[in-house]
User: Fold these one by one.
Assistant:
Number 1:
Amino acid sequence: MAKRRFKNKKVRYVAIGASLVTGAAAAAVLLPSANAAEELTADQIMRKCERAAVLNGKKQTTADFGGGLGDGFESDTCDFVETKFETFDGPTEKVTVDFPNCEPNATAPAKVTTEFSKAIGQGQGKYTSTQQGALGGLFGALSGSWVKHKGTLDMTVKTATASESEQREVPVGKVMHVTFTPKIQRMTGEWRVHVDAREATTTTNATPEQNFVAPEVVEGPVILASAAGTPGLADGTSKVVLEDC
């Protein structure tokens, strides 16, 4: 591989911060509200999102989220709104064994074939690990956001693979190995859950419009273009490292 490289301001919002890089615990933040709105945990917000009548513009049936007979929708709409997209280098790892050329009588470079295959996890987010029905859960709902970017992430698979097989030379008196640094993409945004106001009926009270927000961060490898029908390889940089014997 070559080296490359979410209108209702009166409603109380529940904002959950997600930290993938540090692994820090999410904290609930209650913003000021002029009226007493329902307070939900992050899991409750995302349950309403998954069980929305319309998820990211696509109309759902209860079967899409594993609902049974008698189950209904828990919100009217849920949409993911992207706020930032970035790419950066992931952690560098040693991906081959050592290839020494340390024999006392060695006089010429040693020709070796370096091969590696590295699986890189993808689709990592605080909420989007949930899978469901035909839409592929919240992962499936994010697919449209990813395709706007060059490094398209296939949300239907759990890992992407980077692989390489190259012929190289090890200089006399050196030990060689290869490292690989994956190119990672990160999408930051918000899940915006909306519940329409309901008028009172003979059996139920009137309910106000409700809006909830859950920030999200999803990461995965940048995927190189591939031939139709074949999985794309993870992008990144391989590097030869030489050390003295």
Number 2:
Amino acid sequence: MSIKKLYSNELLASFEYSNIDKDYDFYYVTTSDKYIKVGATFLDIDDIKISALQFESGKSFWAMLPKNAISRAEFVRLLNAKEDGDSLSIKSMTSSSIPEYLLTQLFLNALTSPVDEMISFNNLSGKLLCF
């Protein structure tokens, strides 16, 4: 049995962090539970306009929102009101504090968010392979 070659492209991303931070707010959300039970669907809240979401594991994810679309306090309040919201830890982040591969994935995910009323967020692009 022969092994087939894997061909891929390399994505070279460069960021103007100050410009990104003018346009977007970022949050890192973790849970003290084994995993976030309902996944991304608990972010389908009318009061929150999520531009992109990237799960790092079943226990944590990064969220990207339009700048000042919602205050941090309101974001925390809305998430805590959801099922198991009291187990969540929510940190405001700057774009430069996010690993580049995750920031790139967030921007790719923002391109694929559907406009369907039933599902207001879906990560269609999957995971970015990093070496």
Number 3:
Amino acid sequence: MRVTLLSPTDARQLARLIRAGTKRTLKAARTLREICEGYRIDLPGLRVEQGRITLGPIRIDDAARLARLLDAVPQATEQPSTTADAATVKALLAHAFPQATGGGALSVSVREETPNLLDLGSVDARTARRLIRALQF
């Protein structure tokens, strides 16, 4: 691939397109962070990378709370936050996430070196907006 000089007009148009595309993703990430904070779910690694929203590390109890909010387990059951192991919460999230987002996928992995944390993968802005809607209702 060869990079050539752009005319000022083309450069402004390209910058405008990049800004417009990034703006929606950044807004979705900010809204998702605010909603999760409202539910006391800590996602310290939430960030936008290469046009996708990376959710990052999450404590087991926060992941269990997220799974419950996505209807992974009935709200009336015992809270799995302290007794659940990482594999159980991973399975709950892996099952609930696509149902709550209308088919969106989220990779969830167990951290071997820190068993009280899971790693959540990234989602595109469209899936993030569907997750936001699922968490709002």
Number 4:
Amino acid sequence: MGTSSFFLVERDTYSPDDLLSSVMLASFKSDAMLFYRNEKYFTEENHFKYTTLSIMYNPDTDENKFLMYIDGVKNEGLEFYNNGQFSGLDPSQSLYQVGCIEDVYDNEQLLFSFVYEYLKLNPKQYYWLGGYSWIYSWEDMKKLKSLPYDPDWCYKNPRG
């Protein structure tokens, strides 16, 4: 079991449809496979809660793959408490944490390619590894991409 991570999106602009579209394009551009069974889960009030998909390099192995959640707008737990403790993030922003990615550990290379392509499509969003006090912006990912690949990239503060 590994650490989970999230994309951080302005509350007023979040759309599950946009997240799903971006995930599909980022998977394609990062040369990863996307497996989606179209299983949707709903709240008791019949509001869309979430769906899941898998992103992987090779479907014949359990290596290099992760599960991702596409969250509904009325899903509990979307609120990201941006209280100024996160390096690289303006504390006045009101954000949702969406697109939960499970099991970051041992999937760092796939994750790097995927996050790079996702933030390239959504440069005003961020990537956050749960439990750490920094975020990754599109500018951070561009900088990391220009350097030799570091397998511990997501466990290091990109600003120092």
